[in-house]
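This part of the workshop introduces the protein records we will be handling. A record pairs a protein's sequence with a compact description of its fold. Comparing a sequence with its tokens is the quickest way to learn the format. The record below serves as our worked example for the rest of this section:
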Amino acid sequence: MTLADLDIGWGWTLAIKTVIVMGLIPAGALVLGYTFLLKMMSHMQSRLGPMDPGGFHGWFQLIGDGIKFMQKEDIIPAGADKRVFKMAPAVVVLSTFLMFVVLPGGPDFVVANLDVGVFYALAVSSLSVIGVLMAGWASSNKYALLGSLRAAAQLIAYELPLVLAVIGVVIQAGTMNLHGIVMQQADGEIFGWGGLGNPFILTQFVGFALFMVAAQAELSQPPFDMPVAESELVAGYMVEYTGFRFLFFFIGEFGTAFVYAGLAATLFLGGWSVPFIDADDDIMNFLGPGVLFVKIMLVAFLMFWARFTYPRLREDQLQALAWKWLIPISLVNILATGALKVAF
């Protein structure tokens, strides 16, 4: 049974889907991203951190941090543009929520099944740049302004290889619909054998690597954390934010990491589909979210592994990597994909 079978009306169906996707998924991203992944990396590097609060692996740490942020005084600098200063964190988080709208968790488990879902997701992800610039400019702080300018330059540079990495998948699938891309992988064949489908990571492994590097830079996570370099800019564009407004930026970071991992899992790992089960079966509306979540955590694990492994790049190295290496490689990948698509 699906939501459409309940005959509760289009408006209520959309409302239910919206509540589920924009409520549970970001909450899961924050809880599991903050607790599971960070603590996993702490164990890998013998940096145990706060493992005592609440008993088992410090499960209360997230709740304690949330209470701490909510209790902190909301301070707005005297010289700040108060209206823009208050709006900036909301704009950053809004771009993350808008990306969840087209991320499919099953045959019918999606808020909006757009024919241009890939284009929409990549387009709304760019809105975070506006929020970052708003935060830096409105803070009336030279460190915040410098951090926001660095962030804008970095996000613009790495959006190009991010988009170009996805074009190979779009060419191979023949559609920009995320549900269609999942079905192409689920129903595809590898040299005539369709037991595992045809996950695009096998043919688009270059695109997957480019997507992961560009997504890491879009998140401003190490080694691409120049916009918030503590040793130079204290906290970058977030330096003047306190309490729940700072928490909004924090939620935006982990929520965006979660949705980028979801896009990578959908585009390259088959999304919610699983071998030996028909992707159109209604049971995938219940199993699909769990399957997608496991794949998301695997991709997120790679993101956080890189975050805690590599040192920060200089600004010139960061820009050179995007313009001199990632973009040319992605263009070659597009040409190779197009040639093989025509030939075979």
